[in-house]
Each structure stands twice: as C-alpha cells, then as structure tokens.
Amino acid sequence: MSIFHMSRREKALARIAPITEKSATDRRTRIAVLRAKRSKTMATAFAHQQTFDKAVVAIVQTIPVSTEVAEWFRNEKLIPKSKRRWRKVARNPAVISVALATAVIIGVMTLNVMERLTDFPGSAMARKMLTLAASTRGTELDRVETQAGALADLFFMKYRLEHYDVPQEFADIKTAGARVFDDDEGRRVAQISVPEKRMQFFLFPVDRNPKDGKPREFSGWRYLEHEGWAGVVKVQSGVCFMAAMKGEEKDLAPYVAQAK
C-alpha cells in the first residue's frame, strides 16, 4: 500500500489542478498534486491528465483573440494570490507553541522583577524560612507554651542569642513550641510555632555589608510571599523577625496595623 494515500477530495483537486508550478497555487491543491505524482494508483492517470491539459492549452493559445476581448482581461489576475488570514496563522500549532513559550518566559521574568522590587536586606533568607515553614511539623520543635515575647530570655540563657526579641505586635501571642538551629551558612535561627492560624515566627541575623561588616538594617515592616506562604519582616538590633503563615499579605496586615 502506498504511503501517499489520497482522499476523494484530493483526487478531485488533482483532476482540476492548473498546469503550473507557481507558488500562488492553493496549498491544498499543491499537496494533492504532489500526492498524485507519487501515488502508485494515481501517478499514471495524473500524468495523462496533465499531458492532455497541456495539449488543450497549446491549441487554445493558437486561437487568435480579438483586441476587444484581450482588453477585458488585460488587468485581470486569472490565478489570484490569496493572502493567509491571521486567524488561520494563529491556529498553526507552531505559532501556538511559540506564543505559549513566550508567555511563560514573560511570566517568569515578571515574577523575578516583582521579587526584585520587594527585595530588602534579609529577603533571600526570609524566603528560605517560608519554604522551611511549609515543611515543618510540630514534633520537630521543643514544646514551649508561653507568650512569644517571653522567649527572648530562653534564647539568651540557653543559646546565648542576643536581641532575639519578638516585636510587641506579636509578643502576646501564645506559643506551642520553639527550637534553635544553624542554617546552611552557619547562621543561628530561632523558630517558634504558634497555634493561632498555625503561624510560625523566625528570628535570624540580618544581612551584613560585605565592605564594612555592618548590619544592613531597614525601617518598618516589609512583606513578601513565596510558594503560597506570606511573611512580614522587621529588623531590630541587627536581628530580623519574621511572622509567617500560609496565605497572603492581607492575612498578616491586621497584626501589624493593630500596633499603629
């Protein structure tokens, strides 16, 4: 069986195909002609058809045409070149693939730009802590039931961590557990679990200026979102405090606003 199988429609197009190799011929007709030439069942019949058509054309071209008739067709295009419509181009799989790839690239670039716009000293560390918060289980922390503001004494006496204080906006919230660990860069991180809305608090050193080693501090609260979690960060005495919860910035805003 020939791989160039022709449908009934293609056979009809091949029979009426113009005897020309111009690219202006309709694409479907060109495909039908190509398949007819390579088809075992159609090749011979198609060749006879083309030979007959050329013979007829040769005879017709010998017929004299009067000036009046010639004038009618002087500016006419007997085989007009059709333009591809934009809708047909837009439905092309290749065009769709390129458009989707471009949209993904633009989306990634937009997210990166948005993250850059919200960057602040310690934002990279804060995003890591949001990722950690999403995977932390309550059993990983030591059980500590007290007010969050009271844990500063525990961090100092047990771990010699200075200025690991929970800001007043979150100091009265009851805690369920706490722990202190070293991150992959050897920085001491304090983590506190809170039953209220399953929040988690993190305290960690703020980034330092590589030139003079001074803490890169900032004023006020800064928000960030990462992988479905939201965080609000404040720095004081060279230590960043972050309250994190699964949700959006609007879920944390009331805690910060209540102290204003």
Basic shape: rod-shaped
Structural class: alpha+beta
Strand content: 15-25%
Rg, Cα atoms, Å = 38 Å
List key phrases describing it:
260 residues; alpha+beta; 3 domains; seven-stranded antiparallel beta sheet; 10 helices; rod-shaped; membrane; transmembrane; transmembrane helix
How would you portray this structure in words?
It is built from ten helices and seven strands. It is an alpha+beta fold and 260 residues long. The protein has three domains: 8-82, no CATH class; 83-117; 120-257, no CATH class. It has a seven-stranded antiparallel β-sheet with strand order 1-2-3-4-7-6-5. The mean pLDDT is 81.
Topology record:
Elements: H1 8-15, H2 27-38, H3 43-61, H4 67-72, H5 86-90, H6 93-117, H7 123-135, E1 142-143, H8 151-159, H9 168-171, E2 177-182, E3 188-193, E4 200-205, E5 222-226, E6 229-236, E7 239-246, H10 249-257
Antiparallel strand pairs: 1-2, 2-3, 3-4, 4-7, 5-6, 6-7
Short recap of the structure:
The chain crosses the membrane at residues 94-114. This protein is α+β, with helices and mostly antiparallel strands and 260 residues long.
